[in-house]
Amino acid sequence: MTPPLPKAELHCHLEGTTSPSLVRRLARRNRIPLPENLLDDGDNFIWIDVESFLKTYDQASSVIRTAEDYRDLTYDYLASSAKEGALYVEVMSSPDHAAAAGIDYEGHLEGIVEGIESAERDHGIIGRIIVTCVRHFGPEQAMRVAEAVVHSPHPYVVGFGMGGNELLYTLREFAPAFSLIDTAGLPTTVHAGEWAGAESVADALDALPVSRIGHGVRAVEDPALVERLVREGIHLEVCLSSNIATRVYDDFASHPFNQLREAGLSLSLNSDDPPYFATSIGREYLIGSKFFGLDVEALKLITIEALKYSFANHQTKKELITRVV
Ligand code: ADE
Ligand code: ZN
Predict the structure, then answer these.
(1) Residue of 236, 249, 321, 246 lying closest to 291 (CA atoms)
(2) Range with lowest mean pLDDT among 41-50, 257-266, 310-319
């Protein structure tokens, strides 16, 4: 059997990898009731729009209660990604979701690190962590997360980011948290240009020291901004299935992936929250091939772009890039 095409993922929310069956298993293991109105009769998460997605996401994450839960979640996700050919994955962890479920920063990190080490030992995949704050929890909470990152450094924590509701607060309000991280020498990324328009991507470049944008695809609405992104060497972490599921675009035919690519932007393919969007890193590459005309060489270049813009250290990047053949 030919080995799967080598892949790399830069944008996947760890809590968002919890499948409905795993939510049930964790609720049972932690002896807590399953949150109400979370799953439908067909065992799918219930959500209809961005607000209800984020609410369901927060509820589903609430069954993750221990460092061991974080370990298992990380291991399962990395092992399944490795089976699809992923060489390298950056998982976004959310200490806020962990804290809401009673796990402190060190506890959540300890579990994730164990999952990363076991997955590397068993499957050869390299995992690293981007600690994220949540925009709708506000700038003060974001600063607390940034402080935890700076006060408890770990070699696997390679960056800082922010997800959550793009329509709340301004990015400038989060500048102090990002600046603390920047001063400590860690790179950053932020969700923008997903549920808000091109101006949110411009705001990110103006307000925050980011080298990558989570999604960012709506930059396409402003050609001068696309030029700026190319000029400044900013990478976009594209999540195709996620964008259709949350109705950023009606279908793959309307998605601007190829337009952005042809404009010279550096792009990667990512799963975002796999069970919510019925996807995986392997499926995103398949969609790239089926709906966006990417052949094997183009897909390998996507992997190389992801590795080049990853937050891994220089040596790790170099070694991984030589494995993309
Ligand atoms: N948190 C989890 N998934 C997200 C997404 N797609 N956008 C913003 N925040 C998120
Ligand atoms: Zn995301």
Answers:
(1) 249
(2) 41-50
Residue 182 one-letter amino acid: D
Domain that holds residue 247: 7-324
CATH value at residue 269 = 3.20.20.140
The answer to whether position 2 is within a domain reads: no
Find the 214 Cα to ligand 2 centroid distance in Å. Answer: 6
Residue 209: name the closest of 169, 179, 171, 173 by CA: 179
Residue 3's pLDDT band (cuts 50, 70, 90): confident
Domains identified in the chain, total number: 1
Judge whether 236 and 212 are in contact, CB under 8 Å: yes
Binding site membership of 242 for ligand 1 (Cβ less than 6 Å): yes
Q: Is the pTM of this model over 0.85?
A: yes
- Enumerate the active-site residues: 194
Residue 174 within any structural domain of the chain:
yes
Residues of the chain above pLDDT 70, percent: 100
Instruction: Give a yes or no: residue 1 inside a domain.
Output: no
Mean pLDDT of 69-75: 97
Asked if residue 13 is part of any domain, the answer here is yes
Average pLDDT of the segment spanning 49-78 = 96
User: What is the DSSP track for 183-227?
Assistant: HTT--EEEEESSSS-HHHHHHHHHHS-EEEEEE-GGGGG-HHHHH
Per-residue pLDDT band at 224 (split at 50, 70, 90)? very high
Ligand 1 atom showing the smallest separation from residue 191 Cα: 8
